[in-house]
Amino acid sequence: MIFELYRNRVNNYLNTLLTRQSALNEYMRYSVLAGGKRFRPILTYTTASLFDVELRQVDACAAAVELVHIYSLIHDDLPAMDDDDMRHNQPSSHKAFGEAQAILVGDGLQALAFEVLAGAKNIIPITRIKLLNLLASSAFDMADGQSIDLSVVSKNVDVDFLNKLHLKKTGALLGCSVKFGALLKPQIDKKDIDILSSFSEKIGLAYQIQDDVLDVLGSDQSLGKRQNSDLKKGKPTYPSLIGIEESKKAYKGLYGQGIEELSGLSVNATALIDLTNKIVRRDY
Questions:
Q1: 94: which of 51, 188, 196, 209 lies 20 to 30 Å off by Cα?
Q2: pTM of the prediction?
């Protein structure tokens, strides 16, 4: 399966990036190489493949977006934020190395993401600048979304508010992953970019709703973290607002709408449709 090839490719690339001789590097390796779905880099590789971009040009983008994602998880797990003690079926970074080191691990991973992307010599400079700008703005939106999320713990919000929150917290980096793959094609049509932006918004929101459902229905083992972790903290979730069945309908509908959007692309989107259908069926 091509998606497994992409997962292995980004895993190997991430491994080669984390070779510096330091304690911090070892702490970074602990979280980066612990596993994970690698959904974001796989999205980048898959989107780039639609436009016949060479894999070697995609590696830095795929790694950068995953490094930012992992840094965000490490910081989200901290006691000052979501206070989760498990991630990918192992103790969270702050449980393994202490809170101060976990903060530094996250800082180091974010810095490394920009270093990798800025140093990608096989991507032309003007494209690199566009990619760096997109990663920076997406990382800010993700942090802004997390800030909003923390501000509404144990408060009543409606679904519209939750949608806006998660379009930032979850959707921003997912959108970045998709657009990374497209921007690597210098002559990309603006219509294709617009379609992929709309697609990524829909699947980004669907992904979060699905996560909320799985948080209730999944097991600790399958999730790699504690079940019902959000509900126990008083965080507003889609199941708590509209129920499990309506939440299921909502995310399946959004995935379907996203797939429909892809019919307007100037290229054959079968690979991206197949990946989206695979995500719909996930159980973690």
A1: 209
A2: 0.94
90 neighbors 34 (Cβ within 8 angstroms): yes
Give the CA angle between residues 204, 41, 180 to the nearest 5°. 75
Residue of 79, 84, 4 whose CA lies nearest to 274: 4
Question: Judging by DSSP bridges, how do beta strands 86-87 and 90-91 pair with one another?
Answer: antiparallel
CB atoms within 10 A of CB 8: 11
**What does the alpha-carbon distance between residue 218 and residue 15 come to, in Å, rounded to a whole number?**
30
Domains and CATH numbers, the chain: 2-280 (1.10.600.10)
Q: How confident is the model at residue 231 (pLDDT cuts 50, 70, 90)?
A: low
Question: What is the tens place of the pLDDT at every residue in 163-196?
Answer: 999 999 999 999 999 999 999 998 899 999 999 9
* Rounded Cα gap, residues 36 and 30, in angstroms: 12
Of 211, 197, 205, 194, the C-alpha closest to 254 is 205
What are the tokens at 214? 């799985």
Q: Burial letters for 146-156: b for 16+ Cβ neighbours within 10 Å, e otherwise?
A: bebbeeeeeee
Q: How far is Cα 185 from Cα 263, in angstroms, rounded to an integer?
A: 19
Mean residue pLDDT of the chain comes to: 94
Please tell me the predicted confidence (pLDDT) of residue 1. 78
